[in-house]
TrEMBL record:
Protein name: Xanthine phosphoribosyltransferase
Role: Converts the preformed base xanthine, a product of nucleic acid breakdown, to xanthosine 5'-monophosphate (XMP), so it can be reused for RNA or DNA synthesis.
Chain residues that bind xanthine: L20, N27, K157
Subunit structure, interactors included: Homodimer.
Keywords, comma-separated and alphabetical: Cytoplasm, Glycosyltransferase, Purine salvage, Transferase
Listed EC numbers: 2.4.2.22
Length: 193
């Protein structure tokens, strides 16, 4: 998606350690018009798939997923929580994931009443690096018996291999911008086409 690539070039910041900071429009301040265009792109890619739920992970995926849901007949958005709370009651699906940006492992939790074997799920998230968070969401779907119809990612760091592994495993993965390389010294980003 050229619009997203251009925003990354203009407003993204490359930090040491393969970190791409896009908080001006994606995961701190949200550009809802851009999110809407992203949702339209995913709706075109996944057209004809029987999506009944969109699954994401808190917090950065929630805004993107909610706006994208408007392009999928307003299907419900379920977000996996990263911590237990008193608001989480009843039976739950739980798995552990490692976060590249937070450099730690944490639980991801979805209440069983919101994910079932009848669901056809589109997973949406803001970033894909090594694929650990997505693998956790896939595991939650597998535990529920739900069908993963596809995965929509805003920005994939192609050089970290997570997307390649998911595609090799047979998942329909649509990343709107795939970063081929980043250089923190000169702040440049190149994209895979």
């Amino acid at each position: 998606m050229l619009e997203l690539e251009e925003r990354i070039r203009q407003q993204g910041t490359v930090k040491p350690g393969n970190v791409l900071k896009v908080d001006a429009f994606l995961n701190h301040q949200c550009d809802v018009a851009l999110f809407d265009a992203m949702g339209a792109a995913w709706a075109e890619h996944f057209q004809g798939k029987p999506i009944t739920k969109i699954l994401t992970i808190e917090a950065s995926g929630i805004g993107i997923a909610c706006v994208a849901a408007r392009h999928f007949d307003n299907v419900p958005v379920v977000f996996a929580k990263k911590a237990q709370s008193i608001n989480l009651d009843g039976e739950q699906y739980v798995t552990q994931v490692y976060s590249f940006t937070k450099q730690r492992e944490f639980p991801v939790i979805v209440a069983k009443k919101f994910l079932s074997a009848d669901d056809h799920v589109l997973i949406i998230d803001d970033f894909l690096a090594n694929g650990k968070a997505l693998q956790g969401l896939i595991e939650l779907c597998e535990d529920a018996g739900a069908t993963v119809e596809g995965i929509g990612i805003a920005i994939e760091k192609g050089f970290q291999g997570g997307g390649d592994r998911l595609r090799e495993a047979g998942f329909d993965l649509d990343s709107l911008a795939i970063v081929e390389s980043m250089d923190a010294d000169n702040g440049t980003v190149t994209f895979r086409h």
